[in-house]
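Hi R.,

Here's the chain you asked about this morning:
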Amino acid sequence: MPRSIHRTSSSHFRFTVLLAVIFLAGSGNWRDGMAQQRSPQQRVGDGEKTVLLYGQQKERETTEVRAVITVRGKLTEREEVKAGPVPMEAVAQVVYDEHILPIGSEHTSAEPLTSARFYRQAQAQLKVGDHGQTTKLAAGAELQLATYGADGLRIFSPTRPLTRDELELLELPGSSLLIGQLLPNQQTSIGQ
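And here is the predicted structure, written out as tokens:
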């Protein structure tokens, strides 16, 4: 029976910001770089407080990325079925080490960003009513290459083809390759 998802009050933008915070908090290079470059909070001008928003990954550096996505809602049956809404919950957990690959002397927005990713954990549990299903990245497929260019994110498996479920598991909303391009990399006023 076809089911339709009842819209919930989740926000893709909030998830992207959360992913940015998770990415930044997991990056040892980011913390070290901030301590060496400047204080994370400074007072400027007339006492205005600022925060350094920095997330640039550098070539030849490895960063740990963790993402947890939780979706809850209700599935509603077609009108002719006359059944009430069915609770639905999905939880995905992904942990990988990402190493930006050298692409030349200096990256420009026209060039794609490329990284090697080693997935230490990639699984999702989906539960609809009393029925559940778990999807995991199979052993032997932990190493992936990710490229983000003009046509979006592309994931390539050098060891074997990925199943559709595995590929959907790895294609998260937001990409750790883009975090550095989303943040201003400068002191920013709180609330700006």
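One quick note: Strands lie at 3-5, 41-44, 48-53, 62-77, 86-100, 113-128, 131-136, 143-149, 152-156, 186-189.

Cheers,
M.
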